Amino acid sequence: MTNSIEDIGKADVTVIIGSNTTEAHPIISMEVIKSVKAGRTRVIVIDPRNIMMTQFADIVLNQRPGTDVAVLNGMMSWIIKKGVYDRRFVKERTEGFEELKKAVEKYTPEYVEKISGVPAAKLKKAAELYAGAEKANILYAMGITQHITGTDNVMAVADLAMLCGFLGIPGGGVNPLRGQNNVQGACDMGALPEVYSGYQRVDNEDARRRMEYAWGVSLPDMPGLKTTEMVGAASRGEIRAMYVMGENPMVSDPDLKHARAAFKKLEFLVVQDIFMTETAELADVVLPGVTFAEKNGTFTNTERRVQRVQKAVEAPGQAREDWRIIRDIAKNMGYPMKHRDISDINKEISAVTGSYAGMPWETLDACGIQWPCPEIGHPGTPVLHVCEFTRGKGRFIPVEFREPAEKADKQYPLTLTTGRILTHFHTGSMTRRCAPLEHLAPRAEAEFSHEDAEKYGIGDGDLVELSTRRGKVQVAARVTERMNPGVVFLPFHYAESPANVLTSVALDPVCKIPEFKVSAVRVKKKRGVRS
């Protein structure tokens, strides 16, 4: 996030796009709702479903799944045409405006309506409401990133925020809501194939030399494979061994039949986790890790806040802290890591990661510090890009609308989109072992609009078969006002009804994220059967 969570309530207008905030990020949604109820904030929701947040919204844009770029370009086109963009900010702090203006000119609200299904009049109102605010922010999540155009979607969001001058100010910002508790910290620490910690690129010679000096080794100068590319490489025999840590790809990966075949082809699989997951069941070796309450360390949350985690209970059985497992494996492979405790690790982090340089273990407390924190005593940085962007001036990057990899057709007439529900988390490795939560949501339910339910003769509780070009699953049907005609929603938490059997391996060409949010699907009612 460019801003802080507490900043959310300072906005006059909040745009929520691709985020079922109340279910996937309930604490953050509370900040939005409190501000709405206090009369401070007006909300625009852009989502194919009528999620709970639409109850608090002034304007709701139900776009066809996969058409986010068109909608965002349409808002910018109208804002520029009406002349309500921030001329001073654009002139003083950005470059490339004329290219953006030219690119979005054709995305008139009427043209966008034909692409997305969003009524032109509502798009105009949303654009004017956002641009007319004194302070406005944008919240987004995987609803816009999990597309073959995920990178384009994020670029368009950033373009919109710069156009209206809502970066570098309290109550503004472009704020991605991270999907798991420490995913921000994992990325910060270089858990990506193209960067070291602090987003230093592995193909940058200066960065590589710094890390080689720090670690006393020679390092490759080419980025590795992203997670989604690894599965394809395994299926081709190019990867023969894999080490999976804190991940359950046998539920979360796209096109699960293909993924399972690839994992079974591996010669050696190690899984390090806190439970015997569906992926761990395939492993040659399972290494038992510990939970957050059984270790010391830090988590970095969605607002870049680095917080100290302190051990509360002893780990059971043979479970060990993840860093100790990794250290001992490295030692046995001939590279002795000399870390004795968490403090040693944090000293190394501070030494090699500029944005974390002022946050040694001893200085952190329960409140934490937001990076960048370049030196000890620095208060941290609640708002990014206050005076200038990292590159100096912000550059507009125009993007064109591209259709999803699959569109509904005669054979597969509906569009499937996947996501989370409030009760369960991710692949259910933890929440589905919690009896009260499992009692609340014991099965997967596919959500249908009333129109589609009537068209296909489906009632609440009916057992239906959903099928795509990859496979089929059987689930219970739920008929709800949340859905719009032509769109079906299925949560991905349930291994016995795995949504990702249905999703495709079509990837964003830049970040390689799968298109989980758009698949062409058909439905068949299982006659005489109710779940």
End-to-end distance, in Å?
42 Å
Residue runs with pLDDT of under 50 for 5 or more positions: none
Beta strand % = 15-25%
Give the radius of gyration: 24 Å
CATH class of the domain at 5-177: Alpha Beta
Number of helices: 18
Keywords:
alpha/beta; Dimethylsulfoxide Reductase, domain 2; 30% helix; five-stranded parallel beta sheet; 19 strands; 531 residues; 18 helices
Describe the structure.
Among the domains are: 5-177, Dimethylsulfoxide Reductase, domain 2 (3-Layer(aba) Sandwich), CATH 3.40.228; 414-525, Barwin-like endoglucanases. Strand 10 (297-300) and strand 11 (305-309) form a beta hairpin. It has helices spanning 21-24, 26-37, 68-82, 87-93, 97-104, 109-116, 120-131, 142-145, 150-163, 183-188, 205-215, 227-235, 249-252, 256-265, 322-332, 342-352, 435-440, 450-455, and strands spanning 13-17, 42-46, 59-61, 94-95, 136-140, 174-176, 241-245, 268-273, 285-288, 297-300, 305-309, 369-370, 394-395, 414-419, 445-448, 462-467, 472-479, 487-491, 519-530. The strands form five sheets. A six-stranded mixed β-sheet has the order 15-17-16-19-14-18. The model has no long low-confidence stretch (mean pLDDT 95). With 531 residues, it is α/β, with parallel strands linked by helices. Helix 3 (68-82) runs antiparallel to helix 6, helix 3 packs parallel to helix 9 and helix 12 (227-235) crosses helix 14. It is globular, with a radius of gyration of 24 Å.
